[in-house]
């Protein structure tokens, strides 16, 4: 029985990169099952799925022997076992649509992740997690207790060996320090009206302006509020008949779709960072 692996990498553009990767895999008796690559004027981004030989090769063996190849080309790279699903912690407040959608996709094996914990600053959604057998942690947050709450979150991340934190409509702004500690492994979802309709009741503001597109953006969390590298965006067309309540409903649909795709792509190793942009091999 063969094992499945995923290699992702980025490095400066120069001849021989693909040859080096394919020669490495051939030398280990591996078979490429999917390959995607993006080159710009300066850099190469690559994602390759492959199966190991029938007589077996371990992840550690592959990693150890790939080190000199990566060093020769100045690669930033990751190599993982495709059968091991990343461990996900979902953060929520009181809006339930994104959490409910992620839990449903996880239960139906449509999410390439393992949801191991739900954390909320309110107790309201504990029943959703309990219905799926997922542990729930209530971590209240006030202005006075925010440092302690964030320290508790980091404890939970370490305790549960979390690979990805998902802010599924978590209505608290994370501190700069926490954003830095979770850099590249925390995803947020918000409506795409920002910054046009910031503040309270954005859909009501949008209705007053007669918007024709409702959208949502999934992005990595950074210290720059809602300005992290964009992973996915979803838009849904509306017209003059859509009142504020309808816009809210449509917006939640967009949020669910964009967030689910972003989480899945991250967990499948399909996203590579390029400064404040992303390369997404969807």
Main β-sheet: number of strands, strand sense, barrel status? 7 strands, mixed
Oligomeric form of this entry?
single chain
**How much is the average pLDDT?**
95
* Major β-sheet strand ordering: 7-6-5-8-9-10-11
Task: Bin the helical content.
Answer: 25-40%
Please trace the helix and strand order, writing H or E for each element.
EHEEHEEHEHEHEHEHEEHEE
Structure description:
By secondary structure, the chain is of the alpha/beta class. The protein has helices at residues 17-27, 59-73, 97-107, 126-131, 146-159, 176-181, 202-209, 244-267, and strands at residues 4-12, 31-39, 43-51, 76-81, 87-92, 114-120, 136-138, 164-167, 186-191, 213-220, 230-237, 271-274, 277-280. The chain has a 7-stranded mixed β-sheet with strand order 7-6-5-8-9-10-11. The chain has a 4-stranded antiparallel β-sheet with strand order 2-3-1-4, with helices on one face. The radius of gyration is 21 Å and the shape is globular. The relative contact order is 0.12. The model has no long low-confidence stretch (mean pLDDT 95).
Features of the shown structure:
alpha/beta, single chain
Short description:
By secondary structure, the chain is of the alpha/beta class.
Secondary structure topology:
Blueprint: E1 4-12, H1 17-27, E2 31-39, E3 43-51, H2 59-73, E4 76-81, E5 87-92, H3 97-107, E6 114-120, H4 126-131, E7 136-138, H5 146-159, E8 164-167, H6 176-181, E9 186-191, H7 202-209, E10 213-220, E11 230-237, H8 244-267, E12 271-274, E13 277-280
Parallel strand pairs: 5-6, 5-8, 6-7, 8-9
Antiparallel strand pairs: 1-3, 1-4, 2-3, 9-10, 10-11, 12-13
């Amino acid at each position: 029985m063969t094992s499945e692996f995923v290699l992702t990498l980025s490095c400066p553009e120069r001849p021989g990169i693909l040859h080096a990767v394919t020669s490495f895999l051939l030398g280990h008796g591996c078979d490429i099952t999917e390959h995607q690559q993006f080159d710009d004027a300066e850099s190469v981004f690559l994602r390759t799925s492959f199966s190991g030989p029938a007589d077996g090769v371990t992840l550690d063996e592959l990693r150890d022997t790939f080190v000199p190849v990566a060093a020769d080309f100045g690669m930033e790279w990751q190599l993982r076992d495709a059968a091991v699903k990343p461990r996900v912690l979902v953060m929520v407040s009181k809006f339930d649509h994104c959490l409910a959608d992620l839990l449903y996709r996880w239960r139906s094996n449509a999410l390439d992740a393992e949801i191991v914990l739900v954390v909320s600053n309110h107790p309201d959604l504990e029943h959703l997690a309990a219905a799926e057998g997922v542990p729930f942690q209530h971590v209240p947050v006030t202005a006075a207790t925010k440092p302690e709450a964030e320290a508790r979150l980091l404890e939970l991340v370490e305790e549960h060996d979390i690979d990805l934190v998902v802010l599924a409509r978590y209505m608290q702004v994370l501190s700069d320090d926490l954003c830095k500690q979770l850099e590249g492994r925390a995803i947020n979802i918000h409506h795409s009206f920002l910054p046009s309709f910031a503040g309270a009741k954005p859909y009501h503001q949008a209705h007053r302006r007669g918007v024709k597109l409702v959208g949502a953006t999934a992005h990595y969390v950074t210290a720059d509020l809602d300005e992290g590298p964009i992973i996915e965006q979803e838009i849904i067309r509306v017209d003059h008949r859509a009142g504020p309540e309808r816009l809210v409903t449509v917006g939640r649909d967009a949020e669910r779709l964009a967030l689910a795709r972003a989480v899945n792509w991250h967990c499948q190793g399909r996203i590579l960072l390029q400064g404040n942009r992303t390369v997404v091999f969807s």
